[in-house]
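Appendix B, Record 12. Input sequence as logged:
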Amino acid sequence: MTRVRNIQSPASARVLALVALMGLALLFAASGAKAAGCAPEKFGPLAPYVAANNTHDDGGPSGESDSIVGLWHVVYTATYTTSGPLPVPVIPPGPPSSFQFLQSYKTWHGDGTEFENAFLPPVGGNVCFGVWKDLGRGTVKLHHIGIMFDPATGAVANIFTVDETNTVAPNGKSYSGYFDFKIFGATDVFGSGAVLQEIKGTTAGTRITVD
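Logged structural output:
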């Protein structure tokens, strides 16, 4: 007896392979459509909400209206003072109950450092530096340190520190807060020893912009 072998031609094999691939494609397409249809619809409305709440006033260079980063004109008003190296009125008892202690140009940098140029004669020292951190909601904390020189000899007379807490207005154009100014001896380079004089009060900053 002669046995007949079932031999597929190359053409028929290619047709079967093509049909199998088409079947797999249809299967994955149906599976994908089902997954898309089962996605929770509650995520859809978030898109316009996020877009609306990521828009900010251009008050700060970072695009956030409550950012303190930038250049400011600052007025310091004293409301409490003690006697010491600086010849200022002692409050209390006063009067006056307050007075303008200082004006300056102040730059807050995005890296957490700060630079200030006070409206004072350079011979006595009018440039100083600080470090700051963000407390959230437009509020920052600053620790500032500087040198006071003897105008007659140029020698270091005192070290001083200023600690501030400031909050930027929602429109980013101003900030307000409180300062605590302390004077230390000439060799107290970190301002951590005996306090020779203390002056406290309020701060008022006005942003300086390019335009």
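The chain has two domains: 10-55, 70-208.
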